[in-house]
Amino acid sequence: MATQTQDDVDEVVPGREWASELYRIANDQFDRASSLLDLDAEFVTRLSEPRRSLVVNFPVRLDSGRVLGLTGYRVQHTLTMGPTKGGFRYGPDVSLGECAALAMWMTWKCALLGLPYGGAKGGVRCAPSELSVAELERVTRRYAAELIPVIGPDRDIPAPDMGTGEREMAWFMDTYSQMVGHSVFEIVTGKPVVLGGTTGRREATGLGVVYVTEAVCERIGLDLREARVAIQGFGNVGAVAATELYAIGARVVAVSDHTAGLVDPDGLDIASLVRWVEANGVLDGYPDARRVGSADVLEVPCEIVIPAARERQLTDENAPRLQCGMVVEAANGPTTPEADAILRERGILVVPDVLANAGGVTVSYFEWVQDHQRYSWDELDVQERLRRQLRAAFGRVIDAADRLSCDWRMAALSVAIERVSEAARMRGIYP
Ligand code: GLU
């Protein structure tokens, strides 16, 4: 048999394990930023693929007695910066490739914000809306138990993401605590306040979107109170951002969720919409606005579009039709590279996800610090620190955009990649 060489090993397509549309997007962004930085090949290799991933298959007993087989994931992108951090999501299309892309973005987000974490992301492929509360609890507890080999308060700290929230974090924390025999609040962030959560975490992502938007508006000389805003998504991020913008005096002319899009060029009454959703669960049926399709809100004439729903919402198909001056990416990965190029060409400013939605993980960091210190901050303290930290990160993005003559996405990623590769260089390679 012929001797195999390292060249034969390289025949395996790098990244094949993560193949997915979202991973293609994350990698395209990483490739562009690392070329811009002329990043040493060593760090391209060390950062382009996740360090660790766990795929678990586990059974869950449904209320009917039937057993459902589920697949869950946890991907840790880099172990260089400290423990890893990132949410876990429940959804019918959660996959290893999606988690890998989202974990990579978490690395850049944490590095840009100066948080002492590498990125991670996880999830369970399931349809949460079809599961009862008791079934969701069993899914969450079993998923937490399956992750024991890779998580820990100083190893990997999960948090909420799509389809998960405080309730799931409480079950997760309880399961981990039962396993180690004492309460470990700092195993997860985004918990209810009474279980070691922090004030302000629930609102943090949406509030952060508004703080970043304010800073951007100051920079470009746009009065936010005069601006028209369209928001796709009315969940934990979109509804909070809408409420805050409405409180500031901005005109929110369109909102949507998966059931409906609502438009009013004079401005929607967000307080009344929030009450409607509290009572009815979804936007569908709200009487006081013109109804359009969910995705149509992205194309409404306005100054600021905020995609705050899913990934890959701005594509080469709809990007030419946008009628705004600025896109603030509240969701992770809402813009495909093709749409990004079109927006750039059209002179539409894009405030990248790793900056715009970093409020969530920043306040998660505050929660983890408070848990470790057994000392709670008040809400004003959390908000002021959040605002300061996001503004400082925006300042770094502006500086890098000037220094490298690039758009804000490339600037944000460059700041992050420089930081992580510098740390990787200093740590060296073991052994
Ligand atoms: N899932 C959120 C994100 O995408 C928050 C993660 C965290 O708080 O650790 O940024």
Please, could you describe this protein's structure?
With 431 residues, the protein is of the alpha/beta class. Among the domains are: 50-182, Rossmann fold (3-Layer(aba) Sandwich); 204-356, Rossmann fold (3-Layer(aba) Sandwich), CATH 3.40.50. It has 14 helices and 13 strands. It has helices spanning 6-9, 21-37, 41-48, 96-113, 133-147, 166-180, 201-220, 238-248, 270-280, 337-345, 353-356, 359-373, 379-404, 408-427; strands at 52-61, 67-76, 84-85, 88-91, 118-125, 156-157, 228-232, 251-256, 261-263, 290-292, 304-307, 326-328, 349-351. Strands 10-9-8-7-11-12-13 form a 7-stranded mixed sheet, sandwiched between helices. Strands 1, 2, 3, 4, 5 and 6 form a 6-stranded mixed sheet that branches. Helix 2 (21-37) runs parallel beside helix 4 and helix 5 crosses helix 6 (166-180). The longest helix is centred in the last third of the chain and has 26 residues, at 379-404. The chain is globular, with a radius of gyration of 21 Å. The mean pLDDT is 96. The chain binds glutamic acid. The site of glutamic acid has 12 residues, from helix 12.
Question: What is this structure's SSE topology?
Answer:
Layout: H1 6-9, H2 21-37, H3 41-48, E1 52-61, E2 67-76, E3 84-85, E4 88-91, H4 96-113, E5 118-125, H5 133-147, E6 156-157, H6 166-180, H7 201-220, E7 228-232, H8 238-248, E8 251-256, E9 261-263, H9 270-280, E10 290-292, E11 304-307, E12 326-328, H10 337-345, E13 349-351, H11 353-356, H12 359-373, H13 379-404, H14 408-427
Parallel strand pairs: 3-5, 3-6, 4-5, 7-8, 7-11, 11-12, 12-13
Antiparallel strand pairs: 1-2, 2-5, 8-9, 9-10
This protein binds glutamic acid.
